Each structure stands twice: as C-alpha cells, then as structure tokens.
Design the sequence.
C-alpha cells in the first residue's frame, strides 16, 4: 500500500502530462468551434428576397415545408471561398436533388445579382441578410457556412468553410442522406 | 532643428497605435454608464473569427456587429447577464473568455485546488512523520557515560583524563 503511495505523484504528473500531450498532438483542430445548434430547432429566420433577383426570400416555415432535409448555405458575392464551393453546391442541387436555400450575408443587392447571374443560381430560395443579424442568430463566424436541416426543422450538421474536395462533399451528402434525402435515380 | 522635428514625428508615429481602438465612434452610446457596461461585457466576449481577441479590440466585421448588438440590447433594458446569455445561446460557451462554472467545467475550475490540497496533505503527512522521529530524540547516556561526563565537567584539564 505504501509503495503505491510513493508512486502517486508520478502517476498524477503523468496523467496531467498525458492530457497536455493529447491537447498538443491529438488530431483535432482547436480553432474549430462546436456549434450549439446541433440537435436543436433551426433559429427563426424571416428574410426578404434579394431585390430584383426573382428568387423568393427565406423564412422558418420554408425549412420544414417539404418535410425533407434542406441545405442552408450562407454566402456572399465578396467571399472568395464561396465562389469555390459554388460548383459543388450547384452539383448537389442538380444531381442529388438537394433542396438548397441560400442566405446572402451582408451583401449589396447589385453585387449579389451579378454574382448569381455570372455563376448560375442553384438556390431555390435566397434570404437577403443585409444587416448580418440572421448570421448572428445562426451563430456563424463568417461565410461560407452550411447547415443541414432535417425535415422536422432540427439542425443536424454544420460545415464551416467552403465545401470543396471529395471529403467535404461526402460529409455533407452523408449528413443529408442520414436526414432522409431522397436522391433521383441516376 | 530638422533632427528635433523628425524625433518628434517618430515619437508621435510610435504613439499613434495607442489611439487605434476597435470600438468605432459611431458605436459609442451617449449614456456613459451604458457604454461602460457595454465595454465591460465585450471585454469578456471572444471574437469568433479571430478567436483569441475580445470583440472590444477586434476589427472583424462580426465583432463590430456583436458590439452594436450588445449596445442595442443594453439600451433595450437587458441586464449584463441577459446579454451574455443571448450570445451564449447562439455561439456557445466558447464565446466567453471566462468559462462558466458548471458540471462540464468542474474539472477545469477545481483541479488546481484539488492538486494544491493533495500536495499540501502530502507535505503535511511527510512533515509529521519526520517530526515524530525527531521527538524520539537521541538515546540517553548509560550510567558509565554519565559518570565520565560528570568527571570531565568537574576536571580543570579534560585532556589529562582517561
């Protein structure tokens, strides 16, 4: 018994050191912020359409209207990574039957319209979040950010940054499938 | 003369960054009390983009939005805690520099005290043990030694003895 007590300080030191080492070398990104939204109903949203764009605006009711998962993507014309993921989002909407809603974050209407005309508009609905308040409601730290919303309006997945590359696309697709995405037979 | 002027200019230039505060003039509230509360709150709110900077000093767009939002809520009559709760509901505890005390963070807050107490207890036990050994003291002299000691003490010339 006494022998074990002698080793106690060593054991405590190793435990603390091991914890610190885990913090340093473990395969995790400390700048990744866990979202508080996961597993909770999507925050209320009531956004007007981008003026003169012709795409309808976005409100909370739209998120659950179809009873199927939707992808909510925060984007802006001034955001370069948004341009990078635009092709991926377009493909998801076109080939995988994903319902894609956009939130145009802190953007000028003219710029947003031009951007969507140039690149194409894959969004079924776009809310114009000119003030950035919807972004705060959803707890985003910047654009692009993408949320997978289940048919019952619960947020099931959050992706920070551009969805580019096979891994990112797979991550979004599997989250959508898990939420009950019905893909068109190809 | 030109050297003096350039020296003054260099010093002025060096002091310039001290004027640069992220809180922009148009954000500042007319009511100094509310403004002071807003500053105190935003000093403890993390900028979610820069992550290691409070929104007080951050130039990020979202930090400015959050500063304005905090002031709006204060003007609407929110307490400091209500403002913080509003932010935590959207960004999680991560947005606070000072993590709240709750079951998930008990280890974080209490570990230093636990370790301190354990170390203190260890030292206490160790000292008491060595202390007990000391009170036993050195062995007493036997009668022969006592007699010899007495002789030495009485004698004028100890060296001559024995």
Sequence:
């Amino acid at each position: 018994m006494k022998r074990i007590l002698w080793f106690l300080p060593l054991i405590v030191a190793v435990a603390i050191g091991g914890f610190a080492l885990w913090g340093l070398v473990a395969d995790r990104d400390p700048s990744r912020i866990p979202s508080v939204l996961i597993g909770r109903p999507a925050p209320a949203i009531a956004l007007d359409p981008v003026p003169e764009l012709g795409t309808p605006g976005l409100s909370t009711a739209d998120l659950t209207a179809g009873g199927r998962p939707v992808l909510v993507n925060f984007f802006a014309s001034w955001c370069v990574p948004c341009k990078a993921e635009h092709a991926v989002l377009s493909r998801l909407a076109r080939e995988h039957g994903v319902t894609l809603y956009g939130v145009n974050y802190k953007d000028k209407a003219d710029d947003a319209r031009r951007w969507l005309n140039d690149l194409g508009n894959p969004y079924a609905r776009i809310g114009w979040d000119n003030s950035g308040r919807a972004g705060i409601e959803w707890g985003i730290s910047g654009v692009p950010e993408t949320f997978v919303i289940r048919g019952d309006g619960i947020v099931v997945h959050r992706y920070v940054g551009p969805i580019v590359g096979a891994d990112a696309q797979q991550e979004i697709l599997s989250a959508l499938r898990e939420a009950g995405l019905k893909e068109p037979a190809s | 003369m030109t050297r003096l002027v350039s020296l003054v200019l260099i010093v002025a230039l060096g002091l310039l960054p001290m004027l640069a505060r992220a809180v922009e003039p148009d954000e500042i509230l007319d009511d100094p009390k509310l403004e002071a509360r807003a500053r105190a709150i935003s000093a403890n709110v993390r900028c979610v983009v820069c992550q290691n900077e409070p929104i007080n000093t951050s130039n990020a767009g979202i930090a400015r939005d959050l500063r304005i939002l905090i002031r709006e809520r204060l003007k609407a009559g929110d307490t400091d805690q209500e403002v913080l709760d509003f932010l935590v509901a959207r960004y999680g505890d991560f947005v606070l520099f000072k993590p709240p005390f709750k079951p998930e963070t008990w280890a974080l807050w209490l570990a230093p005290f636990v370790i301190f107490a354990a170390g203190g207890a260890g030292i206490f036990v160790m000292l008491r043990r060595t202390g007990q050994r000391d009170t036993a003291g050195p062995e007493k002299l036997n009668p022969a030694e006592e007699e010899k000691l007495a002789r030495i003490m009485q004698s004028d010339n100890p060296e001559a003895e024995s």
The domain at 35-178 of chain A is CATH 3.40.30.10 (Glutaredoxin).
